[in-house]
Write a structure and sequence with these properties.
heterodimer, B: 281 residues, alpha/beta, Rossmann fold, 2 domains, two-stranded antiparallel sheet, 6 strands, globular
Chain lengths: 274, 281
């Protein structure tokens, strides 16, 4: 098996394992609140997956199933576009443009589930794109491997707001816009995508803005992704789940100006640097 | 029993249906469900088990059947009339859910589900909706409520030995409001208080837990902002605090006419916030 494919398979496997960890953390936190022992609560995601697998598909289930598969594929594309262990499986001239492809796939899946949620999710995109532009401007490259190698000092130190915007927009807001389709294969795929997306967002921030990953960087990367993913889960529980319209308002009124100012600062620093 | 079935019945998702006049039986049912590590869900599409609390009268029987028809196979349905029937009902439901052969036969006999509009009255049995309340609402093109008609299904008085149930019902109502407001993690804390109180723990000893939730509600700027936007004209936060702190200032219950002009999307939250505080009715 070529190295790139092996790396891709390992990255996808790590995404699913860490996604399962996100789901287990959520189940344990809920269980602790209700007095359920953690040893039982931690089995919650496996039990939910079993319930979904046993469910007889309903008529008209193909569309939400395809939607769930697209949402999960989006999280996978996001990770495969990053140099997690070695050069990314999805690279080439598009570079981190694959992350935009991942967003498009996410939006396609969301649109298949519920067209009315598409506009609120689209409102998150401008802030997300500006946050992704920060490492590109800072390192002068679209190539994810070069972006990592160029960071003797992590971009995230000069651009902490970009880290926050990327995590909140991709890891928290995009999943919030997705309706849950209930039991069955669609429910399983959507649940898996919603658990994998915070991990994918954390990996994106860790690689592109903190300069982690690449050969020899897998362990620190995994540690940072776990910490960032857990932080996202804990933070999400502290804030009310916004209705889709409010979600769009927050993205446009708060995240977009923050990301714009952050990008402006990074552009100014790049121009001032010798 | 195969591995998948064994795993699936570890965490049965239960739709607890409260019939009018059975709020304490519903709370006891939810407590029994959570004590097994199972989960209480709000939509029939997510449920494995429909647990009906009370005797379905003809006017609600069709609505219960409608909820049941939307539950995918494997599924089970039980009706309990007293709290003493709960353990046996849950045990037998778990056996039915784990019986793969039986569920296959059920699947062969039941028509595949088709998503359809809920039957009239089904919403009167939804979780976190006042049991038996039927609202007729007119909504304009902008999604705002323009007229409201209110009707309640008849309820029988509940015979439960619990002393001072109003306090517990108020805490359970506050948990429902928090779920509707988008704070399920905070609602779980109140569910735990209700479960412990129903299990015999002194409610006075549980008061600090309730106060901590009230403090979290009071200091949450994001919740205040969200409620101000989503439910203009109805002070849901004050209502929450009135439910959690009975010793505090009394808050007058707004009339259902206050729903007029409000966004229909926030209807369940608005309705929950315009119900009488338990004990004040």
């Amino acid at each position: 098996m070529p190295d790139a494919v092996l790396t891709g398979v390992l990255a996808a496997g790590a995404l699913l394992v860490l996604g399962l960890g996100v789901a287990a953390l959520r189940a344990v936190l809920d269980g602790v609140r209700l007095g359920v022992p953690a040893s039982i609560a931690v089995l919650g995601p496996a039990a939910d997956a079993a319930r979904c697998l046993r469910t007889r598909p309903s008529r008209g289930a193909a569309r939400p199933t395809v939607a769930g598969a697209l949402l999960l594929a989006s999280a996978l594309v996001r990770v495969l576009a990053l140099p997690v262990l070695a050069a990314p499986l999805l690279g080439g001239p598009l570079g981190i443009g694959w992350l935009v492809v991942a967003d498009a796939v996410w939006l396609l899946g969301l649109g298949l589930l519920d067209r009315r949620r598409l506009l609120p999710a689209l409102a998150v995109e401008p802030a997300l794109l500006l946050a992704l532009a920060v490492p590109v401007v800072s390192t002068g490259s679209l190539d994810a491997t070069r972006i990592v190698q160029a960071q003797s000092l992590p971009v995230g130190i000069a651009a902490p707001v970009a880290v926050v915007v990327l995590l909140v927009a991709a890891g928290a807001l995009l999943p919030e816009a997705v309706p849950r389709p209930g039991r069955g294969p669609a429910g399983l795929l959507v649940s898996a995508a919603l658990a994998a997306q915070p991990v994918a967002a954390a990996a994106t921030a860790a690689v592109l803005l903190l300069g982690l990953g690449g050969p020899g960087g897998a362990l620190p990367l995994a540690a940072v992704v776990i910490v960032l993913g857990a932080l996202l889960v804990l933070l999400q529980r502290r804030f009310p789940v916004p209705r889709p319209r409010r979600l769009a308002g927050f993205a446009l009124a708060v995240l977009l100006p923050l990301a714009a100012v952050q990008l402006a600062v990074v552009v100014a620093l790049a121009l001032l640097a010798p | 029993m195969g591995l998948i079935a064994a795993l699936a019945v570890l965490r049965v998702a239960v739709l607890v249906v409260e019939l009018p006049g059975r709020p304490l039986l519903r709370l006891r049912a939810e407590a029994a469900v959570r004590a097994r590590g199972w989960t209480v869900v709000s939509r029939p599409e997510d449920a494995d088990l429909v647990l009906v609390c009370g005797t379905p009268r003809p006017e609600v029987a069709a609505a219960v059947d409608d909820l049941w028809s939307r539950v995918p196979v494997p599924r089970a349905r039980r009706t309990v009339r007293t709290a003493e029937q709960l353990p046996d009902a849950l045990d037998s439901a778990a056996r039915v859910l784990a019986d793969t052969a039986l569920q296959r036969r059920t699947a062969a006999e039941a028509p595949p589900l088709v998503r359809a509009a809920a039957a009239p009255g089904a919403c009167a049995l939804a979780r976190d909706w006042p049991a038996g309340l039927l609202l007729d609402c007119a909504v304009d093109r902008a999604g705002r409520i323009t007229a409201v008609g209110e009707r309640r299904l008849p309820a029988e008085p509940e015979d439960d030995p619990l002393p001072d149930p109003a306090v517990l019902l108020a805490i359970a109502d506050a948990a429902g409001l928090l779920r509707l407001a988008g704070l399920p993690a905070l609602a779980l804390r109140l569910d735990r208080v209700v479960d412990l109180a129903l299990g015999g723990r002194d409610l006075g000893a549980l008061r600090p837990r309730v106060r901590r939730v009230a403090a979290a509600v009071r200091r949450s700027a994001s919740l205040a902002r969200l409620l101000r936007h989503d439910t203009p004209g109805v002070d849901v936060r004050a209502r929450l605090l009135a439910l959690l702190e009975p010793e505090g200032d009394a808050v007058a219950t707004p009339s259902k006419r206050r729903l007029i002009g409000r966004p229909a999307a926030a209807l369940p939250l608005l309705v929950a916030a315009t119900e009488p505080v338990p004990g004040d009715a």
